[in-house]
């Protein structure tokens, strides 16, 4: 069992030939509305990767909340502990131009209200083999969940995204850190030249490097580079979410960690073959197929 504690957003994505400037109105070409937020993405990714998984998060009392719950549930995620708070859901307003550049405004809405975890929410954390969290909800909440996880032997995977500094109080509870280069730099001041610098903070870490694969390092002295799986890349959005979730699923299944990282790399690569975020997250069969290559 994997439990994901994190954010859920409705992504409202509009496409136009060119992005509007301040004060300007531009006529667009396409619009899609898709579930997003790193928490929801990773919960969906974990379910597709084959875990029985629950999502702890907060949606608003608006129509976006209703749709978010329906979509996350339809992906096979247990949303029985998903909170509804009065007000707006988290929303990402995304504008994309003809060459793929974007402007993104995220209003956290209900995600900001996810504090003071209930007994039932904490029990869901304790019942899991692995807990996965990111930093799009209040960091105190992540710490609270990680403390519950620790007390029950649930392994704590922290995807320290988006990039920011993380309190020592939380880092001390982390079993496995997953960061990309920007996030690693925010934590250690050093990027791909020194993945082992992460071991000053946590006992095990993965540094993901997009098409350059990933480093796995731990305090037992392991430092292994896992190459990326070669695929025809369409859009690398959410590759990190697919990677983190697959890593947690494989680790929860008791697989050897290096093997889990290789499987996660296959999941990240699979995700880049399709346009979009949550819609591009791979199922287990596709991950297995790329892993076997
Ligand atoms: P994030 O999306 O968090 O920035 P990365 O871009 O580092 O994360 O991607 C996470 C993982 O997904 C990488 O370590 C790699 O295994 C896989 N991946 C990402 N981009 C590619 C790519 N272009 N080709 C193959 N694998 C990729």
From TrEMBL:
Pathway assigned in UniProt: Carbohydrate metabolism; D-ribose degradation; D-ribose 5-phosphate from beta-D-ribopyranose: step 2/2
Q: What does this protein do?
A: Catalyzes the phosphorylation of ribose at O-5 in a reaction requiring ATP and magnesium. The resulting D-ribose-5-phosphate can then be used either for sythesis of nucleotides, histidine, and tryptophan, or as a component of the pentose phosphate pathway.
Q: Which residues form the active site?
A: 241 (proton acceptor)
The entry's free-text remark on the cofactor is: Requires a divalent cation, most likely magnesium in vivo, as an electrophilic catalyst to aid phosphoryl group transfer. It is the chelate of the metal and the nucleotide that is the actual substrate.
Q: Which residues bind ATP?
A: 180, 208-213, 240-241
Gene that codes for this?
A: rbsK
Q: What coarse category fits the chief subcellular location reported for this protein?
A: cytoplasm
Instruction: Give the signal peptide as a residue range, or say none if absent.
Output: none
Give the top-rank taxon of the lineage listed in the UniProt record for this protein: Bacteria
Protein name (record): Ribokinase
Activity regulation comment: Activated by a monovalent cation that binds near, but not in, the active site. The most likely occupant of the site in vivo is potassium. Ion binding induces a conformational change that may alter substrate affinity.
BP-aspect Gene Ontology terms: D-ribose catabolic process
- A Pfam family cross-referenced in the UniProt record is PfkB
Top enzyme class, one word, equals transferase
The Carbohydrate kinase PfkB domain covers: 1-283
Where does it live in the cell? Cytoplasm
Instruction: Give the cofactors, semicolon-separated.
Output: Mg(2+)
Q: Name one GO cellular component term.
A: cytosol
Q: Which family does it belong to?
A: Belongs to the carbohydrate kinase PfkB family. Ribokinase subfamily. Belongs to the carbohydrate kinase pfkB family.
